[in-house]
Design a protein that fits this description.
Blueprint lengths: L4 H20 L1 H11 L6 H27 L4
């Protein structure tokens, strides 16, 4: 069954948004487990670790976005 390209575009956008949101949520989900394995981590260090994870995920998602938009993947 054929479906409209516009409908596929909308659904694909939704799926990609859900994937992005799930990946961006990883640092918040794992930070306490990471810090729990380390000794003497204070709040500032915990915030720094979370920030670094978030930044690396953001960079990776941007790179993937450019790759997909540029036809590579």
């Amino acid at each position: 069954e054929l479906i409209a390209v516009a409908r596929v575009d909308v659904e694909w956008f939704k799926v990609c948004r859900q994937i992005r949101d799930a990946i961006e949520a990883v640092p918040s989900r794992v930070i306490d487990r990471i810090v729990g394995h380390l000794t003497g981590v204070n709040r500032e260090e915990k915030a720094w670790i979370r920030s670094m994870l978030q930044e690396e995920i953001r960079i990776t998602l941007e790179q993937l976005s450019r790759g997909i938009a540029g036809g590579a993947a």
